Amino acid sequence: MTQTIAVIRGDGIGPEIMDATLLVLDRMGCGFQYEFVEAGLGAYNNCGELLPSATLDAIRKHRVALKSPLTTPVGEGFSSINVELRKRFDLYANVRPAITFPNTKSRYTGVDLITVRENTEGAYIGEGQQLSADGEVATLTQKVTRRGSERIVRYAFDMARKLGRKKVTVVHKANILKSTSGLFLHTARKVAADYADIECQEMIVDNCCMQLVMRPEQFDVLVTTNLFGDIISDLCAGLVGGLGLAPGANIGTEAAIFEAVHGSAPDIAGQGIANPCALLLGAAQMLGHFGMEQDARRLRRAIVSTMEARDRVTPDLGGTGTTETFAEAIAERVNEQ
Q1: Are 241 and 105 in contact (CB under 8 A)?
Q2: Under 8 Å between Cβ of 233 and 94
């Protein structure tokens, strides 16, 4: 069966890493077809819209999108195109794995954890932002719902069970934020009771950050609210070499968007030196979403093998290769796995 994917090539280095990613997917023989659509600065320059209706229609039709980094013009449109996409399609689960890779500038080995972040509510959404007339007082509404908390925690436990993970850590600040974080924690406890086969750990967010830096190997799956998840997932990326190796999946009941979580890096755009691994790893998440787990493992192993060989990797990984040669090296190895 042929699957069509909405493809957003993105801004800055986005087109380069997307071309590299599609090269590898095509070489794998996954049978994907692509509908190319626009968003971000490129779309704004071409048609005056950051999120054209044709793009939204394509995501709605195909239910899956692969997205490169986007640039939101300063002073124009949405505060964040990514947040807007999450709201439009109710992409409530943000899934961010952090895995140790060879020959990176990481201080740790053996890290293999996943952050599951609630994606549609909480302080990060920025609802009710106001600045007083005199500019002295700023306010923000933080809303957490029982429904939102229940479905993200259940997603984390279901994912842990499916992947054979043994522990879920519920990260909160209920000792201080007794209403919002308290509701999240109390809801998480009720959900955890349905999963006797998986250990449930509770941890206050500041202690969690300290423990991640001290002993990341103690964690397996972490689940938390939107703003805490944004911070923790980037911290976890730092444990394994940075955002250049950080993919992200945004999952809802009607659509899913897979991406590299780093920025569009306009300072190196067009130079052919961008590391495509984050988007390739996002593509591996997409393969898993389609039930193509064997292909997802094959792609990850090819990335690891290429990083071990270090023959055609990009300068950020200590090589002299280009985005294209890195992709070619992975594509050559992917059918050997």
Answers
A1: yes
A2: yes
Residue 126 structural domain: 107-239
The verdict on residue 102 lying in a domain is no
Q: What is the CATH number of the domain that holds 235?
A: 3.40.718.10
pLDDT at res. 20 = 98
Residue 217: predicted pLDDT: 95
Task: Return the pLDDT at 129.
Answer: 86
- Where is the domain boundary, 239, 265, 293? 239
What pLDDT score was predicted for residue 72? 78
Residue 251 lies in a domain: yes
The one catalytic residue in 11, 67, 220, 230 is: 230
Distance (Å, rounded) from C-alpha 240 to C-alpha 99?
A: 6
Low-confidence ranges of the chain (pLDDT < 70): 1, 74-79, 337
SS3 state of residue 222: strand
Let me know if residue 100 belongs to a domain.
no
For 188-224, the pLDDT digits (tens) are 999 999 999 999 999 999 999 999 999 999 999 999 9
Active site residue 173: yes
112 counts as catalytic: no
Give me the catalytic one of 26, 57, 90, 206.
206
Query: How far apart, in whole angstroms, are the C-alpha atoms of residue 283 and residue 300?
Result: 10
Whether residues 7 and 56 share a domain: the answer is: yes
The structure tokens listed for 94 are 């943000």
The last residue of one of the domains, among 217, 239, 261, is 239
- 329 and 257, same structural domain? yes
Q: What distance in Å separates the CA atoms of residue 274 and residue 293, rounded to the nearest whole number? A: 27
Considering the candidates 11, 173, 220, 295, report the single residue annotated as catalytic.
173
Catalytic residue among 124, 155, 220, 295: 124
Q: In this structure, is residue 287 part of a structural domain?
A: yes
User: Is 11 labeled as catalytic in the residue annotation?
Assistant: no
230 is catalytic: yes
